[in-house]
Write a structure and sequence with these properties.
By secondary structure, the protein is α/β, with parallel strands linked by helices. Helices cover about 45% and strands about 25% of the residues. The two termini are about 25 Å apart. The mean pLDDT is about 85.
């Protein structure tokens, strides 16, 4: 399944469908959901990183339960904006996930999203390191999805 840009992806949705944001972390994959008006992204859950078919089954079930019409994955571009090995691996992973889940997908620049989220959780929420580890990936997924929603509104 090809990757689309965010405006094309939004046009492909049926009325009332949501977008799912995905931040593939090292140990867990953060999941966020948009509201049905595609204006607000909210953290949802995390999925433990393991074999892609198991991840796809879990994400597919979440997508069906929440009437998700498309996926938005984080694209880890290099700090200078170049498309390096990490971005290529993320793109390949997202294309495989999209195919296995059966939903179209787009990628959004996630440079420094986890850093920004960690900074916010420390400075604004005063969250402990242990609690941050539990929420950072799903909050980063919401951060990525919100940026994509704002840019394509």
């Amino acid at each position: 399944m090809p990757l689309f840009n965010i405006p094309e992806l939004r046009l492909a949705l049926r009325p009332g469908q949501r977008l799912m944001g995905i931040d593939p972390g090292q140990k867990t994959i953060g999941i966020a959901l948009s509201d049905v008006s595609l204006m607000l992204a909210s953290p949802c859950t995390t999925v433990r990183r393991r074999k892609l078919s198991l991840i796809a089954a879990e994400i597919g079930e979440l997508a069906r339960r929440h009437d998700v019409g498309a996926l938005v994955g984080g694209l880890p571009l290099s700090l200078d904006g170049s498309f390096g090995p990490a971005a290529q691996a993320a793109r390949d992973w997202m294309m495989n996930l999209s195919q296995q889940v059966g939903l179209p997908a787009a990628m959004w620049d996630e440079r420094l999203s986890s850093s920004a989220v960690n900074r916010m959780l420390i400075q604004d929420v005063d969250m402990t390191r242990q609690r941050r580890e539990q929420v950072v990936d799903k909050v980063a997924a919401a951060y990525i999805l919100q940026a994509a929603l704002d840019a394509s509104a």
